[in-house]
Amino acid sequence: MRIKITADSTCDLSPELIAKHQIDITPLYIVRDGVSYRDGIEIKPQDIFDSTEKDGRVCQTAAINIADYIRYFEPLSQQYDAVIHINIGSEFSSCYQNALVAADEFSNVFPIDSQNLTAGIGYLVLEAALMAESGMAPADICDRLNHLVPKIETSFILDKLDYLRRGGRCSSVAALGANLLSLKPCIEVKEGKMHVGKKFRGQFERCVLQYVQQRLTGRSDISYERLFIVHTTASPDLLAAIEKEARKLGDFKEVITTQAGCTISSHCGPNTVGIVFARRQ
Question: Pfam families from the xrefs (predicted)?
């Protein structure tokens, strides 16, 4: 059976992984000065940072609409026995709802609500691709994905709150107040929404390592199959230090480093770093 795995551009998988597993990507839209650009195709994260640095305004994001999804799904539904599409969490965007409406036009297209962001989506997409490659039936893949969704643990630490505050995507960040801008908060995705977790203070690189320790220490529920490190503009030295610390704290079989795309970059800004893993099934 021929199964196609597809995903929204917010999955933030590397071009190498996308090509290796033949994953198709649908781009969300980034809106800057009233003009819509396709995420990762017509605009890159550095374009967003440069624009915001210049005029202080953050870019907005827009969902993939129903017509886009229909145009996207139609040829795939004819070429494959099943198309499994993993969406950005439904609490963050209307993409999932739009994909569901579009999928009603076809008998073999199955959208999945990741209830997640960035590499949290990517984790599910990679799992879906591996299951499809192993010959698993579409219904079983969807069941396994829906079972895995609440077990994906996504979090990230921000150097500055400016982007997230201006974008208004996390009400608990807005509640922190301007007097706490010196803090480096951990943002957690829980039950499909963003929440502020532990707050760190001090030099960013040191805070990042403290954040990794806090997420991975003293846990008996972590699956050590895979860890994602996702970032917007982290230095190679910092990324290497994060991987070293993570491997010291857990015997991960695989550590994948990936760069966040335009959607997470537009909301979180530069110097954002996160880790993603699954809890045991």
Answer: DegV (PF02645)
Angle at 167 between CA 161 and CA 171, to 5 degrees: 75
Q: Which of 3-7, 119-123, 177-181 has the lowest mean pLDDT?
A: 177-181
Q: In whole angstroms, how far apart are CA 200 and each of 73, 222, 271, 278?
A: 44, 23, 14, 24
181: confidence class by pLDDT, cuts 50, 70, 90: low
163 and 260 part of one domain: yes
pLDDT at residue 231, rounded to an integer:
96
Rounded Cα distance, 1 and 137, in Å: 8
- The answer to whether residue 54 is domain-embedded is no
Asked whether residue 210 falls in the same domain as residue 79, the answer is no
Tally of structural domains, the chain? 2
Q: Which single residue is written with the structure tokens 């999955």? A: 11
CB 166 within 8 A of CB 226: no
Please indicate, yes or no, whether residues 9 and 143 belong to a single structural domain of this protein. Answer: yes
pTM above 0.90, yes or no: yes
- Two tokens, residue 77: 């539904």
The verdict on 12 and 104 lying in the same domain is yes
Contact between residue 234 and residue 257 where contact means Cβ atoms under 8 Å apart: no
> Is there a single domain that holds both residue 26 and residue 134?
yes
